[in-house]
Write a structure and sequence with these properties.
Elements: H1 4-23, H2 26-43, H3 51-72, E1 93-95, H4 101-106, H5 113-119, H6 124-135, H7 140-147, H8 151-168, H9 176-192, H10 195-201, E2 202-211, E3 221-224, H11 226-233, E4 243-248, E5 251-258, E6 261-271, E7 274-281
Helix pairs in contact: 1-2, 1-3, 2-3, 3-6, 5-8, 6-7, 6-8, 7-8, 9-10
Length: 298
């Protein structure tokens, strides 16, 4: 007979994966899992038939409370109203050769970075319903109990989340070699200032998002369309010598480093050989706290 401690530790990687998809923050995900352990330990496992499912719902409740608290205390808005809510999730950065076992567990269902961005645009209730049901097969009855809604309402929330994900999160090209070829072509064209070559490697409806952090509106960008994104990309010419290949959430990406400083992490979604999304985290307050110091040297 396994103790609760043993069962919780066996489930910890999956619970952390749940929390990461719910919160988009690695540090908050770890805190949520720890809080879930305290609640589970206090409640005890007596009478619980499905311990993994029970632990999943505890983590879900903790994350839901955190998401609702975020909404009630909005961060300082940027001067550009359209960008005031642009905060990219934490990237999972791995060596170009592949993620380590802990990262593999976190990204078990190939949660692409663009998908996490879309999850961040959902309401807390939509996000919980979609993540728990669609990603972790939690029954709608259990989701409904967490949300204090009917199962039909929980189903509708998940459906809305599913629709947003389908419409706004492009499915990446599965071949890493083709992904890397597109990213390399992008930076070669940017280095040469070759506008036509940039247009050739960008999807016509490409989206570029850059999160420079609160109070840095000039470094926070949201652009749509190949011509606008190509125009922005020509400004990356000066970065060419500092670009190092990595995987970002399991897909081809890059880290920009100058000496020991990480200046940016860039995630790409490649479809049919062309880049469909570019997500740039260049917030100097967040980058030093992310576990990316050695990933690019793997």
């Amino acid at each position: 007979m396994h103790t609760l401690t043993e069962e919780f530790e066996a489930e910890r990687p999956r619970l952390r994966a749940v929390a990461y998809r719910m919160l988009g923050s690695l540090a908050e995900a770890d805190d949520a899992v720890q809080e879930a352990w305290l609640r589970a330990d206090q409640a005890g496992v007596g009478g619980v038939r499905n311990v993994p499912g029970w632990l999943t719902t505890i983590v879900g409740r903790v994350c839901l409370n955190l998401l609702r608290a975020r909404q009630s205390r909005p961060e300082l808005a940027l001067s550009e109203p359209a960008l005031s809510e642009l905060r990219l999730p934490d990237p999972v950065v791995s060596p170009a050769a592949g993620p380590d076992p802990e990262q593999q567990a976190l990204l078990a269902d190939a949660v692409g970075f663009a998908l996490l961005v879309v999850l961040g645009s959902l309401t807390p209730d939509e996000r919980l319903a979609f993540v728990l049901h669609d990603m972790f097969a939690v029954p709608f009855d259990d989701v409904a109990a967490l949300l204090e809604r009917t199962p039909a309402a929980a189903r509708q929330l998940a459906s809305r989340g599913r629709r947003r994900v389908r419409d706004e999160a492009p499915v990446p090209e599965p071949d890493l070699v083709r992904q890397r070829a597109a990213v390399d072509a992008f930076f070669a064209a940017a280095r040469d200032g070759d506008f036509d070559a940039l247009l050739a490697v960008l999807h016509p409806e490409v989206v570029l998002r850059a999160d420079g952090g609160p109070g840095r509106p000039h470094f926070t960008v949201l652009l749509r369309g190949a011509r606008d994104v190509a125009g922005q990309a020509t400004g990356y010419r000066s970065l060419a010598g500092f670009v190092m290949p990595v995987l970002v959430n399991g897909a081809a990406g890059i880290v920009v480093r100058a000496g020991d400083r990480t200046l940016a992490v860039m995630a790409f979604t490649v479809r049919d050989g062309r880049i469909a999304t570019i997500d740039v985290l260049n917030d100097p307050q967040r980058l030093p706290n992310l576990p990316i110091g050695t990933a690019e040297r793997g």
